[in-house]
Amino acid sequence: MTRKVGGFTTARGRGSRRAGSSSPDFEPCPELHEVVRYWSGKRGAEPLPSRRDFDPLLEVPHLVSNFLLIDVRGDAPRYLVRLQGVKVVAALEIDLTGKCLDELVPDHFDAVALEHLQRVVGTRAPQLFQGDLSWWGRGHVEFDAGLFPLSSDGNQVDMVLGAVFFRTHRAGRRRSAPW
């Protein structure tokens, strides 16, 4: 099953909700909807926007701390985290800036996230998903996330804009996380 969100289709992903799965039942948080509109507006009529089209510090400063910027390197892509927002660092309790995701200890990075990145590069389309950080030892932290392809030549995905919005849950109550 698929579902339209922000003018593009999200597809059911493989893996569990815990790991971060796409689902037609998934309703993104308002902040993620805002990122979808931001990316779509920058894309315009082009197949893919470029990194140079974005100036998030001026255009969406309230979202920047939830962003990641990931370089896609090589034909068998490796994913280098170029930038990681402070709210993402706080939630994960690790700064991934300057690290390739495939170099991380498998216990510290779920393969499903790499699968989402590969899908974004292969399809050249955004992916929205949600899950929790139980695979990171922080199961009380849930997230809504999106990965948005960027291209310097308008064709090949060479960068991915990530946006992750966290919330915590304890004893059946949910609230936005401070990070």
Description of the molecule:
With about 180 residues, the protein is an alpha+beta fold. It has a single domain, classed as PAS domain (Beta-Lactamase), CATH 3.30.450. The protein contains 4 helices and 8 strands, in the order ββααββααββββ. The radius of gyration is 15 Å and the shape is globular. Mean pLDDT is about 80; it is low at about 5-20.
Chain-wise SSE layout:
Blueprint: E1 2-5, E2 8-11, H1 30-43, H2 56-59, E3 67-73, E4 78-84, H3 86-92, H4 111-123, E5 127-133, E6 138-150, E7 159-170, E8 173-176
Antiparallel strand pairs: 1-2, 3-4, 3-7, 5-6, 6-7, 7-8
Write a concise synopsis of the structure shown:
The chain is of the alpha+beta class. It is built from 4 helices and 8 strands; from the N terminus they run ββααββααββββ.
The amount of helix comes to 10-25%
Supply the helix-strand structural class.
alpha+beta
Count of discrete domains: 1
CATH class term: Alpha Beta
Strand residue content: 25-35%
Q: How confident is the prediction overall: mean pLDDT?
A: 81
SSE arrangement, N to C: EEHHEEHHEEEE
**Uncertain residue ranges:** 6-21
Q: What is the CATH homologous superfamily assignment?
A: PAS domain
Oligomer: single chain
Q: What is the CATH T-level topology? A: Beta-Lactamase
Strand runs, count: 8
What is the terminal-to-terminal distance? 32 Å
Question: Mind telling me which CATH architecture this is?
Answer: 2-Layer Sandwich
Number of helices: 4
